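I would like you to help me understand the sequence and C-alpha cells below and explain how sequence relates to structure.
___
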Amino acid sequence: MKLLTKTLVVLASLFNLYAFCQEESVDFDSDASPLSVIQEGLPKISTDSTSTEITTHVEAMLDWMTQEHYKSNYAPILIYAEKGLALARKSNNEQHIHDARSVIGNTLIRIKDTVSAKKLFLKSLREAQDTNDSSIILKSKGNLANIYYYTEGYKNRTVKIYLECVEIAKRLKDTTRLFILHHNLSRAFNETKNPDRSAYHVKETEKYLSLIGNPPHYKASHLHNKGRMLLLLDKPNEAIKNFQETIDICENTEFTEALIEGYTGYKEALEMKKDYQGIFEISKKLEFYQKKKDEDEAKSIIESVSAKLNVERFKDQIKSKELEKKLLVEQAERKNILLLLIAGIVVFLMVILAILYHAYKRRKLLVSDLRVKNKQYLKAKEESDQLTQAKAKFFATVSHELRTPLYGVIGLSSILMENKDLKKHEKDLKSLKFSANYLLALINDLLQFNKIENDSFTKEEGPFDLREQISTIISSFEYIRLQHNNNIDVNISDKLPRLLKGNSVRLSQILMNLIGNACKFTEDGDINVFVNVIELHDNDVKLEFIIQDTGHGIEKSKLKNIFDEFTQLDALTNTYQGTGLGLSIVSKLLEQAGSSISVESELGEGSTFKFILSLDVVSLNENEHINTSFSNTNQLAKKYILVVEDNRINQTVTRKILENSQVKCEIAQNGQEAVDMVKANDYDLVLMDINMPVKNGIEATKEIREFNEVLPIIALTAVEIEEQKHRIFQSGMNDIIVKPYDIDLFKKIIVKNLTNTVVNNFRKLA
C-alpha cells in the first residue's frame, strides 16, 4: 500500500506542476465540467450570478476545502483547485484568492508536491508585499514555513519564519493564527528534542485555543503536542492522559491522522513504562487506523489523478456517481493497479509531448519575432550610420567654416596688439581677441564632445612637464582673472617628478575646463589648484588634482546633473554663457582615462572638484632625446618659407607673423601655384593649406614629393586633424598646425620641422 501511495503521489505531483503553470482562465459555468459532482454541495451560480452570489459561493467553497483538508481528503481539493482559483478571482476579493491558494498549497504539501505549493505561496507573498497587506503577508509566510517544515533539514529555517509570523500576528491580534503558529513551533521543537522551548509554545497554544473556542480538531492536535513534550520530559503517565484525550476527541470522526498521532504517542508512552500488554492492545488499534489511513490516502490520490488526467476522455462517465464509486471501490481493492499505472505513464508522456509541442510553437514564434526585430535593428543601424556620417561631415564643415575666419580675427588682433602705435586701443583689441577666443572655445567644446562620443579622441601619449603645462593653462585665463578680480594660486607637491609621460592633451582639456569654470563662476575670490602626490614609484606616480574656488557654489539638488550634456550651472538666470558641455567633457575624458571626478559644494561657499590620475614617470635616460632647442624661435630669422593659402586674410595674418620673426615669405594662391613655385625656388619650408581651389594641399604635396622628398611641408588646416590625419601624413607632409593657432606654438612647430632630426625621421617614414 505504501508503494502504491508513493507512486501515485509522484504522478499527481507531475500533473499538478503542469496544471498550475498554465495561465488559462476557467469558464466557471461550464455544464460539461467533471467538477459538477463536487459543486452540488455548494450554492448554485451561473453566468448571470451577481457579485454577492459569487462571493457566497466562494466563501462556502473555501470552508468546504478547509474541512476536506483537515479530513485528509486531498483529492476533492485538487480536483476543484483550478476552478476554485478562477472563482476566487471572479469574486473581486483579494483575500479569497490568497485563502484559496493557501488551502490548495497546503494540500499539495501533503501529497509531496512542494514545488507547486511554493509557487502559489510565493505569488501570494509578492502580491501582499506590493499592497503592504500584513494579514496576507502573515499567512503567506506561514505557508512557506509549512513547506520547510515538511522538507528534511530545514527545521531551523522553519522555526525562524514561524517566529517572524508570531510578531506579525501579535500586531494584527490574530488569535487563530497565533494558535496555529505556537502549535507548529511546539511541534517543531518536539521533533528537534527541545522540550523546554516546546513547553513555552504549548502554554501559549492553550491560551489562544481557549480564545478561539476550542475547536475539536485544533484541541486534539494541541493535546498531541503536549503529550509529545511530556514524553521528552520523561513523564509518560501525564503524556498518556493527553494522548487519551486526543483519541477520545478524534474517535468516530474523520480526523484519522490526528487519531493515528494519538495512538502513536500512547504506544511510545507505554513503551517507556514497559507496559507490554497495553502496547499490544494499542498496536492493534494503531494498525487498524494506519491501514485505514493508507487506504483513504490512496483513494484520495487516485481520485485526484483520475479526475485530472482523464477529464476529457471520460467526462460523460465521470458525471455518474455510480461509476465514480465503482472506480473508487476497484482502486481500494487494488484490482486495477497495473492498468492505472500504465494509464498514468501514457498520460504523463502525453503531457510531456504537449509541453514540448507548446515549447516548439513558442520557440518558432520567438524565432520569427527575432527575425523581424533583426531586420528592424539592421535598418535602424543603417539609419544611425548615415546620421553619424552626416554628423561627422557637419562638424568637419563647421570646424572649417568657423575656424577659418576666426584664424583671421585672432591672428590680426594678436598682431595689432603688438603694434605700439595702437597702444591706446589695446583694451579694445584684448576684448576683441577674448571674444574670438571665447567663440573658438565654444566651437572646440562641440567638436571635442563629438570626438569623445565617437571614441575618436586622440589617445597618443608622450613626455611633458606638468608644472609648465599648468603654468601655461593658468596664463591663458589671465584676462578673465583680471576681469573678475580673482586670485589664482597653484600648489604642486615638491615630490612631483619633472617629466611625466601620458596624454597631455586630454589632461589639458580636463584642467582647462575645470579652471575655466572656476574663473567663470568666481568673482572677487580665490581659485586654488592643488596637485598632490598620493603614490610615487620608480616608473609611475598617482596624482590627486583639486580645483577649489570660493564662488557662489552649486545647489545640492543640481549636483547630480552638472555632468550631463548641455547642463549649465546657472541655467535659471543665464548669468553665465557657454555650451554646457565643459563638465560633461571632463567626466567622459576621465572615464576614458579609467578615472572619475567628484564634487563638493555649498551654496554661497564655493566648490571643490577632485580627480585622481596615474601617469608614467620619464627617467633621465628617456629624457635625453627631448630637443629643447625647438623653443628657440630665433632660428626662424632669414628662413625662406612658402605660404600656400587661398584666403587673403589668412595670407596676411600668416605673412605678418612670419615677417615679425624676420622670415622671408612668399604666397601661393593654390596648390598648383605651390608646385610651380617649389620647382622654381629653394624654400626652407612650406606651409600648405588643405582646402584650396584648382589643386588642394594633399594633391599638391603628393606632386611635390615626386621631385623633392626632403623639403619640410606642414599642413595648415581648420578641420579637426583626427578627420584627415591619415590622409595628411600619407600624402608626404611632415606635421600639422590647426587654425587658429597659438603664435608661439606655431613658431615652435616650424622650428622643429626645420631641424635635421625631423627631416631624417620623415625619410625613415617615407
